Amino acid sequence: MRIAVACDHAAVEHKRAIRAHLEQAGHVVTDFGTDGPASCDYPDHAGPACQALVDGTVDRAVLVCGSGIGVSITANKFPGVRCALAYNVETARLAAEHNDAQALAIGARFHDVAAALAMVDAWLAGRFETRHQRRLDKIRAIERAVISEGRTC
Fold it and tell me: So what's the pLDDT on residue 147?
């Protein structure tokens, strides 16, 4: 699978570990940074990773910042992207099984590297359960209406 990884300065260690873990598992990883401790803005890295999802150059994205909230908000601004903020292994798995989330957000300040890797593995192992399709269809309909008509819900 082709997977994007991205982070801000609060999550460089996590991103590096996730990237190595994914590559060791045979995935092709595209790293959208950041790579050092200098303060940076998470949209500058999560944004391009999510654009790659929209463009189809990657299949999934793992986004990490201090809380996971900023990268998840950024990701969910991209049409068609469903990003879930995981706070344990079960929510990561459910993000795949119930929500068909193509992006996973993790908060580095709240989860050590081992926990983050376990969440990534659970999310990647999860398979979408089609009984939830009607809910995704409703989300897509809302998204289309907002984008095409410029209206709010």
Answer: 84
